[in-house]
Amino acid sequence: MAKPKITFICQACGAVYNRWQGKCDACGEWNTIVEESSAGGVAGGPQRSRRKGRPSALLPLAGENEEAPRIASGIAELDRATGGGIVRGSAILIGGDPGIGKSTLLMQAASALARRGAKVIYVSGEEAVAQVRLRAERLKAADTSVQLMAETNVEDILATLADAGRPDLVVVDSIQTLWSDTAESAPGTVTQVRTGAQALIRFAKASGAAVVLVGHVTKEGQIAGPRVVEHMVDAVLYFEGEGGHHYRILRTVKNRFGPTDEIGVFEMGDTGLREVANPSELFLGERNDKAPGAAVFAGMEGTRPVLVEIQALVAPSSLGTPRRAVVGWDSARLAMVLAVLEARCGVRLGSHDVYLNVAGGFRISEPAADLAVAAALVSSLSGAALPADSVYFGEVSLSGAARPVAHAVQRLREAEKLGFSAATVPSASADLPKSGISVRAVETLGDLVAHIAAGSASLSEED
């Protein structure tokens, strides 16, 4: 009998080595390479090499589907994040920090689908059936027809699904707990995670049932296990939220059947997650209008406009190297805005500590927040509060010019709906359809600084 081949696999990226080493050359992580046997693994064993291929049926591209291509869960925020509903035969990977509410969201989605007549099977690999039932009772979902199964063996799960008939949705919580007889490594390793995910995805494609996989995340916030699993599935969703805040955001980072920049906003309560139809009111709920250094940014998350408050604090520094602390925004982008303010506008911030925070723990990824950040910084430095009824959006170039951004009309409509009467935008975005909001156009960042300085001077004269 041939001796099984021993390989060493990185548990972070899936890179394969012939011998052990401390650092992975592919991803740069330390102490993530683990010894695994390739016998019985994916494409392993002599039986695999002698298997002959079987011809598959060729079908025309044009045709009619017997069923609706998407399943509406009944939870509007979840349907928004998935692009209008869960696609039949798709595999979705949901990641998030422990205790963030992944199991709560999926239990509520499973019960909502079951109430709409769908056949749902919930597979728990981390909790017993009694524990899942306790959560279902707390979420008022115990009266639905969701079927439970506490199992971690992939072959047993697939056999049960085959005997039970094709379900509409299968929830597997979580992919790291599954193990297969075809792999000899321990559960949670790269080989086991990849084997289990591959088997469940094959089942989804062959049967037409949608499969939702729950994945743990690392300290860096990425889904644990090999990155190849994210490439295998059809959609990857991250469930985000700060421990000190009661809201949760379901963010789409990959979706083969819809946009990849949509978000769903939820609020965590005693009876589970509640949908937030208007996130702007949530993020602006505790706003202090008279405090300097606060600017309201009209942003976009996919097709949804979201208004958030950007808070800045500029204080003299006693350190040789002033501090730059950022929460909710890109620190490199802040450094660029500070450099443009100093080089193009004459705003001296080199001897000041700068702290920037996006209120509510929200994360901004688009460069359209440059004007709002600059306005908050200048307001904090001058000590004059910005107008409470004004919003800001626009990109700043290295030359100091204010560049237009997309979806300006949607941003202004959202601001007008929430009671704002003025907006500061780049001059190229000022030629917009007439609305009830006053638009102030700026060509350069210097125009914005001059306007804030003029407002500060008039305020000092009145005092």
TrEMBL record:
In chain numbering, where does the motif RadA KNRFG motif fall? 254-258
Q: Name one Pfam family in it.
A: ChlI
Q: Which residues form the signal peptide?
A: none
Give the protein's recorded name: DNA repair protein RadA
Entry superkingdom: Bacteria
Q: Where is this region: Disordered?
A: 38-60
> What's in the domain note?
The middle region has homology to RecA with ATPase motifs including the RadA KNRFG motif, while the C-terminus is homologous to Lon protease.
Q: Which HAMAP family match?
A: RadA_bact
**What Gene Ontology molecular function terms does this protein carry?**
ATP binding; ATP-dependent DNA damage sensor activity; damaged DNA binding; hydrolase activity; zinc ion binding
* Residues at which ATP binds: 96-103
* Gene name of the record: radA
* GO biological process entries: recombinational repair
Q: Which UniProt keywords are given for this protein, alphabetically ordered?
A: ATP-binding, DNA damage, DNA repair, DNA-binding, Hydrolase, Metal-binding, Nucleotide-binding, Stress response, Zinc, Zinc-finger
The UniProt entry's sequence similarity note says: Belongs to the RecA family. RadA subfamily.
